[in-house]
Design brief:
Layout (H helix, E strand, L loop, with lengths): L4 H31 L16 H8 L5 E6 L5 H14 L5 E5 L6 H7 L6 E6 L2 E5 L4 H12 L5 E5 L16 H9 L3 E5 L1 H4 L8 E5 L7 H12 L4 E4 L9 H7 L1 E3 L3 E3 L3 H4 L9 E4 L1 E2 L12 E4 L4 E3 L6 E7 L5 E3 L20 E10 L2 E8 L15 H12 L22 H31 L2
Parallel strand pairs: 1-2, 5-6, 5-7, 7-8, 8-18
Antiparallel strand pairs: 1-3, 3-4, 9-14, 10-16, 11-13, 12-15, 15-17, 17-18
Helix pairs in contact: 2-5
Length: about 450
Amino acid sequence: MRLTARSRNWTRTARIISAGLAVMLCTLTAWLSTEYRTTFDWTASGRNSLSDTSVATLEKLEQDVQLTIFARDDRIEGRVVGELVRRYQVHTIRLQVEFVNPDLNPQELRALGITRAGTVQIHYGKRSKIVDRPSEQTLTNALVELIRARTPLVAYLTGHGERSLNGKANHELGRFGTTLSAKGIKTVPLALAETRAVPDNTDLLIVASPLVNLLEEEVVQIQAFIKRGGNLLWLLDPGPWRGLDPLAAQLGIDRLEGTLVDQAAKQFLRAGQGAISYVLVSKYSDHPAVNRFNVLTVFPGASALRIKPPENFKAAPLVMTSANVWAELGSLKGAVNYDADSEQRGPFVLAFGLTRAQKGGEQRVAVIGDGDFLSNTALGNSGNLDLGLRLVEWLVGADQLVSVPARTDPDNTLVLDNIVAAVIGLSFLFGLPLLLCLAALIVWLRRRNR
């Protein structure tokens, strides 16, 4: 191409226009970044954005929420909490935020008992709650608690070796009880031998796998609680009824013989031979308690249930196994194989929900053929915690919160062997700079040869 004075002027003009447009584009982009906020979270766990739990909770808000952050917005505590709160504001317009300088309001802080910079006070209607260590988990739990019209009371039976909601042993339910408390549900032990009756203000009674027989009068009191419309969560394990035969007859519940075996569990669980008695579940009904729940759950040592619902009760399956599961009648030691002549193959029902219409609401009962799935050992398996929370929320009548799952943190560790780590390191240290230099050399040579 032959260059002339005119073409040089046009080229010079084009460069000036291009530079001007580039400056205008950068200026416009900078202005848009201050007026609008858009984020992209590419982390595997989504740790830089709100979980589905928090988003679902925000959708339940029926009135404005006032968040008072006791920190300066130009200090690190205020910036960290402010960034966290902005994630919530992206999903709702009901959050109003105010920063309070703790240095200028010491009396207000002392009156509220606040001792940490960055503490948040949440006002929802006439109720309020203070969160001294703000995080997504603590803020969302506080919102869930404030959304409730009242604090549900859950009583768990004690005195017969049951799994305790404040126990720390592997087989107990302490972690689950702690989570319920964090969700604003009050849990209390109940010794029927002392109280002689289930208190009338009990929203839910939990009977979790007793190890010794209940007294006849205790069973009578549980039956009376059910008769007058009380809600029940009954966790059953394989073995004797422990004196609860009359309760099973009252609810029309029966268990199939044998322990359920799922060969597929050994492929996914690292529990050695013990995994043979674990059942993996991915199939749930469209019942309101588990509607749209599609997370894998693990049931160790479960029994299959069948039901003939009593008069005025409606029964529906909640959790079902796959067709590959069978009820093993023999020992679980050594080689365990399905015997088509004597053993039954699935699918089986692991949990039933019963409802009965009554004045002022609906009575709800859930019977599950396994108590281990909520134990301290098994609670972290996939969706076990989510399923347990959903069932309790449904049983206490908090239907608007049933769809709010618990968030668990996945494994964020990246393990690389020495060779892969060396290749990645050398690629960024030498390979990428050399590639850029090569590209620059090619561009220079092409322009030189014009």
